[in-house]
Structure formats: C-alpha cells, structure tokens
Amino acid sequence: MRDTADWYRGFAEVDARHRSAIYEAWAFGIADDPAMVALIDELPETRRQPSLVFAVSRLLGAEPVGFDAFRSWLVENWSRVRPGVEARLNQTNEPGRSAAILPAIAQLPGPLALLEVGASAGLCLYPDRYSYRYTGGDGVATVDPSDGESAVLLECAITGPVPVPGRLPDVVWRGGIDLAPLDVAKPEDREWLETLAWPEEDARRDRIRSAIGIARNDPPLLVAGDATDALLELAGTAPSDATLVLITSGVLVYLPYLERLRFIDLARRLDARWVSLEGVAVIPSVQQRVQARLHPTSGGFVLALDEHPLSFGGPHGQSLDWFEPAAD
Ligand SMILES: C[S@@+](CC[C@H](N)C(=O)[O-])C[C@H]1O[C@@H](n2cnc3c(N)ncnc32)[C@H](O)[C@@H]1O
Asked: For 97-322, which CATH class?
C-alpha cells in the first residue's frame, strides 16, 4: 500500500512545485501532519490522489488560501468531502491534448470517425473545431477550422519534423466511452470540469470553458462503461465509410495492468487506427520502442500511432518533440 505522507510529499515536490503554489502548500501541509494523513487514509486507496481530494474540496467551497485555513476547513467539512471524493473520479478533460493528437490523425485518410476511450466530457473529440499555433525553430504555423478562428486556441511548442497539417481533418462522427461520462449540458458537470483545473490555472480554465461551449453546440455520443467491455459495441455504431480512429489520452494508466493488456489486445484486433498519448511506461510495446530514443526535452508522454512512437509530448499537449525518421 502506498504511504500517504510520501505520496503527498512527492506530489508537492514533483507535480505541484511549478504549477500551483496552493496545491504545493496543501500537499506539504498534509504530508507533515499525521492527523491529516490519518484523515486521508480513511479514503479507499484509489481515492487518495491529492489532486482529487483538493478538487473535491474546492468544489465544496474550500478557498484557495494557505494550508492552516485549508486544514481547518477540511476538518470541519470532512463529512462532506469524504463521500464527495468517494463518488468522483479524476476526470480532468484537457482539450489541449488535441494539439498533440492532431498531427497524428491528420495523416490518416478521411473522413474520420473518432472514438475516445476515457473521454470524460469528450472535449478531445473536437480536434477539427479548435485553432492551433505550433511554435518552433522554423517559426509559427497556425491552423484554423475551415469557417475561421475558433474560440479555443491551442498553443504547442514543437521541435523536430512535426507534420503540422495545412488544414484540419474532416470528422464525421465522435463517440466516447467513460466509466462516468460528464455531460456538458449539466451545470454541475461543467463546474466539476472547471474545478479540475488547478487553482492558479486560469488560462486553462478559460480554455476548458470555451471547449465546453463548442461541445454544447454539437454534443458527442458518450456511453457509460468500461474501456474494454464497451469498446466493440460502440465501435460497431461508427459509420463504416469513415476511418475509425481509436484515441486514448491520459487514460490507460488508470486501468490495472492486466486490464490494460486486455484493452491493448482488443485495440489491436479492432478495425481501427489507434492514436495514443500516454505516459512513457503505460503501453509496454510503445515503451519498448521508445527506449531506443533519447530526447533532450522529453515531455513525459508519448504520442504513438498503432503503438509506433511518433513523438514525445507534454502531458497537456503543450509540446511535441517529434522523432526523426528511424535510420533503418
Ligand atoms: C484523466 S481523464 C482523461 C480524459 C481525456 N482522455 C483527456 O485526455 O482529456 C481519464 C478518464 O478516464 C476515465 N476512465 C478511467 N478508467 C476507465 C475505464 N476503465 N474505462 C473507461 N473510462 C475510464 C475516467 O473516468 C476519466 O474521465
């Protein structure tokens, strides 16, 4: 079992340090406070993630202030926080990942039918509705939807031969599977999506809000279910005259290892292309292939097409370090 104090300290030092002074202080505060660790340990282990506990606390009214005030608030409100955390999953939906996924899906023959597993609210199912700005050594390349600039502009810093497309793909179908899909038509789900952005991440929150606006105008088909169990049935409803593209981004890490292998096996047998944006160690075949590549600015995630690594990428799609073609 994971030691909670170590978990929160590691989160403060690694995840929060350059992203959120508030979460950093809260996580250090809990790690150094045995009474608070004991409180967190009342939660099932899978629900002790600092970002989940903090997001639920904020949703229930915790102000983004220093640790002492947060501690008092948490003790006072634990009877509400505990069931709130138990009822929720970490469902951060990051439309920015579309900037990393776009160069992979734009290579595929259109029109495209997109099927995302672990879709949350489906905000990564609109790569054709966002605007993009790729900035690298060769300058800036922008791509907009055919009807003009989008309310959502995704910025991506690039190195290497990123195949930035000249135009956005033609997406004719969007479907998603999630254990608990979030519905952009429901105010409480919209509030949760926004709260999942960390306290100081105002620009990210704005981006999520704008992407929600796009999804509300043309909601995706989202089904509740497990990644593997629900895949074949939903894939069977995609139009047969479009290229089916299976997308997984920031999700397979949540599948226990054997479940993940079962999913990978099914993905291989599906009549679809598979674009993944996952942590380096999440898909064993991708990890094995990527080990041959050492890159100076690895962003932590790997973009792969059919398990063949294309690029390192920032976890929110904020960067791409595209691989040079293999020498062999
Ligand atoms: C961190 S979010 C990522 C959402 C989205 N893919 C993105 O990149 O913005 C992970 C999502 O996967 C879902 N999830 C976790 N395990 C799952 C499973 N076994 N089957 C289906 N969905 C799952 C969660 O509910 C959550 O919405």
From this structure: alpha beta
